[in-house]
Amino acid sequence: xxxxxxxxxxxxxxxLVQTVSRLPMxxxxxxxxxxxxxxxxxxxxxxxxxxxxxxxxAKAWLDAxxxxxxxxxxxxxxxxxxxxxxxxxxxxxxxxxxxxxxxPKTGRHPMIGAxxxxxxxxxxxxxxxxxxxxxxxxxxxxxxxRKADLIDEMLSKKRR
Length: 160
Fold this sequence. Notes:
Layout: H1 9-16, E1 22-26, H2 27-34, H3 40-44, H4 56-63, E2 66-72, E3 77-82, H5 90-95, H6 134-159
Antiparallel strand pairs: 1-3, 2-3
Helix pairs in contact: 1-4
């Protein structure tokens, strides 16, 4: 038997293989993951989902590097959010605390690279290509002109 009494080991194992920083789940999804029903207190009290290491269920997700947040007991949902400090990113997470503008080891601002991995650019996508083709741009500009004319018309009626 493990330190979680075995019941929440599947949840820890599931979270350990996740690569996302935010993982929305339903209570029933957690039940499917652990292969058992959650206790009534999980559905009745938000405190059951607190990130308190004295609770065996919280120890499981905290050991996996996640924190439980945005618990909605009425909807039966929550979001597991990667805890950067608990998952080997303590140095990066510390850069954002306090009023540090330059990271001492690298001499770079802590926000450099903060969005790394949050989006991908499709292979073959031309980053220099305009977002709108000529027809779309002309339509957009015509729409702006119509809106400007309407605003001018409304303002001139107000002045009368």
